[in-house]
Every structure is written in C-alpha cells, then in structure tokens.
Amino acid sequence: MSESHTDAFVAFDRVQKSYDGASLVVKDLNLNIAKGEFLTMLGPSGSGKTTCLMMLAGFETATNGEIRLDGVNINMVPPHKRGIGMVFQNYALFPHMTVGENLSFPLEVRGMTKSTREEKVARALDMVQMGAFINRRPAQLSGGQQQRIALARALVFDPKLVLMDEPLGALDKQLREHMQFEIKHLHESLGITVVYVTHDQGEALTMSDRIAVFNDGRIQQLAPPADLYERPDNSFVAGFIGENNKLPGTIEALSDGKALVRLATGELIDATPVNVTQKGQKTLVSIRPERVEFKPEMMPAGAHMIAAEVLEVIYMGDILRARLRVAGSDDFVMKMRNTLGQTRLSQGDQLKVGWHPQDARALDPL
Amino acid sequence: MADSSAPAGGLLTTSDGRSLKSALASAQKRAKRRAFLLVLPLLAFIVITFIVPIGQLMHQAIYNDGFSANMPRVTAWFAETPPGTPPDETAWEALALDLKDAAAARTVGVVGTRVNYEMSGTRSLFTSTARAASRFEPPYREALLEEDAKWDDPVLWGTMRQVSDAYSANFFLAALDMTRDVNGKIVPMPEDRQIYVSLFLKTFLLAGLITFTCFVLGFPIAHLLATLPMRWSNLLMILVLLPFWTSLLVRTTSWMVLLQQQGVVNNSLVSLGLISEDGRIQMIYNQAGTIIAMTHILLPFMILPLYSVMRPIPPSYVRAARSLGATSWTAFRRVYLPQTLPGVGAGSLLVFILAVGYYITPALVGGASGQLISNLIAFHMQSSLNWSLASALAALLLGAVLVLYWLYDRLVGIDNLKLG
Amino acid sequence: MRKLLVLSTALSGFAVAASAQEIAVMSWGGAYATSQIEAYHKPFTAQTGITVVNVDADNPAAPIKAQVEAGNVTVDVVDLEYADAVRLCDEGLLEVLDPSILSPAADGTAAMDDFLPGAVTDCFVATIVFSTLYAYDESKYPSDPPTTIADFFDTAKYPGKRGMRKGAKVNLEMALMADGVPADEVYALLETPEGVERAFAKLGTIKSDVIWWEAGAQPPQLLADGEVAMTTGYNGRFFAATVTEGKPFKQVFDGQVYEYDGYAIPKGAPNMDLAKQFITFATTTQALADQAKWIAYGPARQSSGPLVGMFMDGKTEMGPYMPTAANNLTNALPSSYEFWVDRDTELNERFNAWLASN
Predict the structure, then answer these.
(1) CATH superfamily of B196-416
(2) B120, B255, B364: which to substitute to probe chain C, counting the most C Cβ within 10 Å?
(3) Does B60 touch chain C (CB under 8 A)?
(4) Domain total of chain C
(5) N or C: more exposed end of chain A, with fewer CB within 10 A?
(6) Hey, is the C-beta of C268 within 8 angstroms of any chain B C-beta?
(7) Domain with C213 in it: what CATH number?
(8) Could you tell me which chains touch chain A, where touching means 3 or more CB pairs under 8 A?
(9) Hey, is A33 helix, strand or coil?
(10) Which residues, 6+ apart, have CB-to-CB distance to A233 below 8 Å?
C-alpha cells in the first residue's frame, strides 16, 4: 500500500487534518514510531502537534490518511478500545474520586476483580512513591503529587503506548526537572512507548530518543536531540532549538563541503552548506553562541574572522555572555565559559570573531 | 522577654502585656464596625420585608383575638370558670352586655366570623342578636333565649370557650384536616370536608414530578450550552432566558392558546389526522396543564445552575475516562454526572421550592385537578378572608420546605449546592 | 403579615394617590367598570371638577379588608357584592351611611321607598341588580336549544363542556333548581344536610365535564374559544360579548340567581365628604338609568326602570336583557346573604374537598 514501515509500532501515513474544511492544521504527516521509543513532538502552539496526539488518542479523527497502531488501522476505533494510556495537561484526575478510585477506574471498566485491582493500584502507586496517598482526594494534593497520580493512572492498566500532553507545564522549574527524570526513568524501566508533546525545547532535549519538530502543520525535522541541536536542517529548527546567531548573506563559493559566504556588509565568512546548492544563492548562516571564538590561536588556519565591538557583557555565573555588533547586527551573542584565566571583555572593546566552518551552517533564507 | 511568646499561663500576650486576643479584637473593631454598617441597609431590608412579615404570619396562624378583644366580659367569665361550667346569670349578663357593646362598635361581625370558623351557621346568630341587644333587660338569659333559642346550645358555649383564648392551635388543626369536638378533643374533620392533607401531598407530588421533568429536559440543554462554541451557546442562552423576559401571565396565557381544546396543538393533531375531531385531547384545565406550563416556566431555574456547574468542567475529564477504557455512557455516568451533582441538587431544590409555592399558573391552567395548596392559601386570603387559616397553611408549607431543606443538607450536604 | 400589607398598600397608594380634588373608586374592571366610568365618573367630573380614578380588583372586598385592617386606606368608594358589604359592615370595616344623603325620586318619593327592598343597608347603597345565569353557544345547538336550568345539567341531551364558577355559592342553588326544587324552597333545603347532599350529588353528575372559572371575564372567553359549550357567568358580561362583540351567545334566564351590587365607603377613606358626594350623585334615578345604557344590569331604584331604554348603540332594546325584567323572573332566585354569611366557610370547604376528590 505504501512504502512506510509496516513494522513500526505507531505509524502516521499521509495524515491530514482540517477543522473547517478550508485550511489544514496537519499537512501530510508521515511518522513512524518504534516500540519502546520516547518520541517528543515539539513545536510552538498551533503547530499541529497536539492535534496529532489527539488523533492518535482517538479524540479527533484524521480527515485523510491512516493511523496504525501495531500494524492495525485505528482510524475507526473509538478511544476506549485503543488501550492507550494518556496523561493530560491538567492531569484530569476525577475530583469526586479518591486517588485509589481514580487508579481503580480503568481496571473496573475492564472488569477486573477487586483483589486484582487493589494489587495493581498499590503497585502503580508504589511505582510513583505515592502509596500513602491512596485515600486522598486530588484537591488535597500538590501539583507534583497530582502529576504522579496522573502518571500512575495512565500506567496502571499496562498500556503499551502512553501519550503525554504537556504534562509538566503547570509545575515550577525545579519540580519539572525532577519529574522529567522520573518519567524518563519509568519509560526505561517499563519499556513502554511514549509519545510526548511539549513546547519546551529543554524538556524535549533532555528526555527524548527522537524529537519531531512541528511547525505550520508539518514536521520540520525528525532527529535525535544532539543532531537536532547541532545539525538543524533549516532555519526554523535552528531558531527554535537553542540560541543561535543568524547572519544573512550570499554564497560566494562552494567546494567539497565548504561554503564561502559574503555578508551584506561585504565581509567573507566560512560555513557548511546545508540546503544551499549553488553560487549566488541567498542564505542564512547560523552559528551557536558557544561556538564563537575571539582568540585567533583557537581558530584553524585560513579561517575568516570578522570585526566586532563589545556592546554589553552579562555575568551569568557559569558563563559570560557578550552582546556584540557584528556585520551591522547589534544582537550577535557570544558565550564564554567562566573559567580561571578567561579573558574579561568590557564594553567598547574592539576585537575579531570567527568559528570553525563546520559550526556555521548555511541554511535556507527565512 | 515580654513579647508574644507563650507565658506560663498559656495565654499569648502582646509586648505591653495585654492579652493577644483582646488586642486583636480592638485592632479589628473598626474594620468590623465598618463592615457591619455596610451590610446594615440590607439587613434592615430583610428584617422589615422578610423576617417581620413571616413572624407575623406565624403569629397570625396561632393568634386570633376576634372574640376575646371584642367580648371582654364573656372572655373574663370563661377565664374564671372551669371548662364545662354551664352558663349562669353572670355569664348571660356578660354576653348580653358584650353583644350590646360589640353592636355599638360594629365589631360583632368579627366575633361572629371567629365563632363561625369553628361552628358553622352561628355568624348570623351573633349579628341578628346584636341588632336587638340594646333592648335587653335582666334577666338576660330569658331575653337572649327569646331573641333566639340557639343561645341555649351547650356546643355553642363550648365553642365560645374555645375561641375566647386568642391563642389557639385550631387553625393548624383545620389546616391538617382536624377539628375539636364538643369536649375539646382533637378529632378528624368529617370526610367530606377533608382537603388540605391530600392537597399538601398532591402539591409535593406534582412539584416532584415537575422537578423531574425539568431535570430530564434541562440536563441536555445545559450540557449543550456548556459545550457549544461561544457564539452558538450565547444564542441558545438567549432562547433559554427568553421566558425570563416575558411576563409570567403572557407565558401562561400563551400556553392556554396552545393547549386548549380548540388550540394550536389540538388543531394541528386533528389536521394531521392523528386524532379525530371528537377526540381532541384535554391538555389544559387539569393536572397535565399545570405540569406542562410550570415545567416550561421553571425550566430556566434548572438549566442555569446546571450550566454554571457544567461550564467549568473541562472536556479532558471525559476524555481521560475514555482513554482509560470507559465507553461514552460509562464516562458520562461515572465521571461527568457526579461532577454535575451540585448543580442538579441546586436546580432541583430551586425548582421544587418554587413549584411548591406556585400559584398563578395552576390557578389559570390547572382547572380543578391541577390546583396546588397555594391556590387554597390564596382562596383564604382573598375570598374567604380567613387569614388565620391562610397563615396556618402557609406556615405548614414553609415548615415542610424547611424540613426538605434539612433533609437535603443531611443527605447531600448544603455545601454541595452550586447556584452559579 | 400586617407590615407586609402596610407596605404593599402604601406602594399601591402611590398609584392612586388622591389629591384634594380626586377620589379613588375601586370596582371590578371590564365592561362593568366601563359602564360606571361612562354613567357616573365622567358626568360627576364634568359637574364638580373632581377627578375620579378607577381602580380594578378581582373582588374589591379582599383589598378593602386588607387596607382597613392595615390602617392605610387609599380608596374612597368601593363597589361590593351585597353579601360582602353586609359582612364587612358587620366587621366594622365600612363607614355607616346616612340614608338622608340619597336624593328622592323625581316625583318626590323618598329614597328609602324608591329603592328596591333591602337595597339600602347600614353601610351600603345598591346600584344594580346583577345575575348569575348560564349562556350557550348558539352554533352548538342549532335545533331545540336549551331553555331551562335543568338543560344545563343535561349533558346527554346537550353534550359539551360546561363552565362554572369555582366556589359553592350559586352553584349549589342552581343544582337544586335544576333538580326540580322551586326557587323559594332552595335555601330552606340547603339548610339541611340532605339538601346539601342533594346539591352536591346533582353537581356530581356533570363534574367531569366542568371547567371552573374564577374571574368574571373568563366565561365569555371560554365560550368564544370553544372550550365550553355552555357556562354560567354574569349576565352583564354575556350581554357585552353578545351585543357589542357580536358573539353568538344566548343567555338563559331560567334558574338565574340575582344579587345586589353597589357602593360603600371603607372605614377611614381619605376623602370622606367627596366620597359621599359621589355616592349621592351616582345613585339618582337618572344616573342609575344611565348606567343601564352601558351594561345589562338592572337599576336598584324603581323609578329608574321606566327610564331604561336603548343600549348606547341606539338599536338594542335593553329590556329583554335585564335580569329584573318580568319575563326573566319566572324562575329566578334572589341570593340569600344571610345563608351565605353563615354557611360560606363550611360549604366552601366542602366544595373544595369535593373538587379535589376524584
């Protein structure tokens, strides 16, 4: 039928979704998720990631295309027969039931006996270290505790696939980082497949096996975190994940994996061509702030360096962050490790900056 | 250190040695006084327009000085003699002189009316005898008996003794279909005059039925209101509220136009051939009319509390239940419905209490079988002018509603009530 | 209760706030109030310059009792049924009227001799005689129409719903007359338990076909809507519907129960002297005859009778529509207030119980 892998655990096959019949929220989505994988859908709000999750859960139907779970088309399967666990943004713990009753609910509707239910509930609560809270109501729990209960409830009936829709959005930073670790740990120890939706790139980078970056109803790039950060496929991904400097210019020369780019202000810089193919093409060169160098001895031979003026230096503890004027742009950022003997720059210093050609990526012009 | 740490006595004190409690009270006194002044107008309004009238209503139900205030001598004689004493000449004299005074003061009608409530057919005895009272000479017994031999009736004297006490439970007895016999013993009313108890029961039954139909009809509408996109739900909300903006009489009258035998509904059914010309359905001037019209009128009172409870329930609860393996029915029953219970309780209580006291609509469309207790209260207020009985009936109705309210609190908990 | 009444009457007081040259007259509304406005209020204002404000009530006796007991009387003159007037007078809620304020007839006959027997009491001056009778829709019975009170109770011969006033009064009398009791024996029989039993039994024969009305405006409406085929009602209302609105209603005077209705002054009326002046004006021979131009109620003065002529439309002879016309009195019953002031409570309780039982 199609060339997509039928052995994938979850497969989106040319899926499209429209709410109003006039515009597409999801445009031609193809995605395969392997068994046991932790896949994150990352993107700004309105990018289509939540819609994809809802289609997978069965709360929305695909307008076109096919969604398969374990090789079976589930387009027409109602949500309660899909056997997918789900953690919602605001936990959706039933407020009129105790923690125990919440966890028991999916087991009850599956007709399990009381003793089985009690055993499974106890095990699931122990798993998230919440065994002592079995008789509490959700309203009597803190946000982090509710989060754990929601997690336990999504796992208590042993689903093979668990969906999480921005589950940590309501928690403070410290708790969020702690829960990221716990979720990751549970994923590994239980061997379940997780599809995780978030708009927080840090969360995505920390937890995922692979990340699908969504924008405008399409997957912009699907790659493991390191690839995504270090080798973004296009300007959107480069801009969305982490901080980067963008320098617009034109391709001056292209040869064996190296590009020479002439900036609008006339300077020449080195870059790695990513989606440029010929001389004279417009491009946007992206460089991570921590890969910018200002000491000539650190640069490879023959590399270009361009003039810069220090506008501002911010002390951030572990790093120092300098805002520079480079090639007419006032927001070029450079990060330096705060080490003993690090050169201290100050406002108004004139210097030259450069980078290794493989750290600068010549991408499509935005 | 003389500070707020607990001293030996256990009472906390401030740094200058005063007890913490009194220091707090004086510090808050000003704020409390200001808050009290702010609620004072409302408090006064409620006391004057609500608590005082209800208190007077309760009082009127047990207090009627129609006899004692206007027949002081007879009342005094009854007070001095034990029950069952046959009237002696003192009593006859007191009666004759009281009647003379009452005739002059034009209050004998009040006296007669009061006695007549307990003993039918005596009102004219008082009024006609009073007209001749100025001529009475001793011996008074003979003078009175000559005017009307009925004065010798021991039952009449027993009744007068009963009503000579301005405080009396008799109106409550009457409201419960009971009366006192000659000896003052409480006995049931003759069967052909018993009406109130069965009418109370019918009122509660009908109010319950109306509450139930309001719930059945209102729940889906409230759910729709809570889940539709804003612009549609606003439109629907206007339709729900439309009845509120129309006069009650107009709404009731339009039901009469719709439901009467020559009305729109019957005409449509006949022209569709569903019923024959002779088989026109009687949908109004009976219980059916009361139920239909009152359900319509009270429906918003069910929908609004339900809506206000349903609106903040996020769809994720039902979705969560579905994802956990519940069918849509189970998700509704186990997860959605329990969360709407505060609204169901509030709406039902509101509709029930309003229905129990409703009066205009049953009066207009209820015919004979669709009458509620409030219609008889109105009857005694407006037609028979027996305000004491009306007050007793109203007090019983109020009491019954309070008992229901208490039961609700015991069974469901009043804090589980959400009006909006 | 009383406080509440004080409040509510005070509020309604604003609506009819009587200035020095203004009096408030409370009456029954509808065609009847119109006839009073045309025959009494307007000429009175034209002659004296005193404005007359008409206030409507379902039965003025109830608000008057409330106002007097609350000590806040806003009405100067009230239109009452005879039995209510006697009762309220006995209870001291009405002013005692001196009959000398009534003007004599044109030929010099003293007022007390000119009024019909019993029409003037301590507190009350009758203006009209009104009748409760039944009317039917002519189109329902094209051949052999009903003519007697017995026909009203004969649903086999004259099928169709009936309308009756929700209350014991009049219905019990009519039931006995329909059962063959002569008019002059009705009240004697109703004094006995057997008589009451018999009246309720007769009512029971048509109970399932009856729609009960409460306000005087309802019976013509029920007839017009086709909800009932015949209904009891006030003859003036039927007259208005038949003659002015052209409805095909026919009144049956057989078995009618007639009663006085007229004016009284509530105790503590704000404009006592003006109220008396109004009553004097409204009870002259001519004024009473004038009212009969507007509604088919018989004037309470003998001298007014001959002056009654045409309805205000100029073509309808009023005579045949008057309850007091000789032809209409062949089988008619004057309502007994003595009976009803004594039996009102008991019989209405019994009636309500009877109504509620199925």
Answers:
(1) MetI-like (1.10.3720.10)
(2) B120
(3) yes
(4) 2
(5) N
(6) no
(7) 3.40.190.10
(8) B
(9) strand
(10) A220, A221, A223, A274, A275, A363
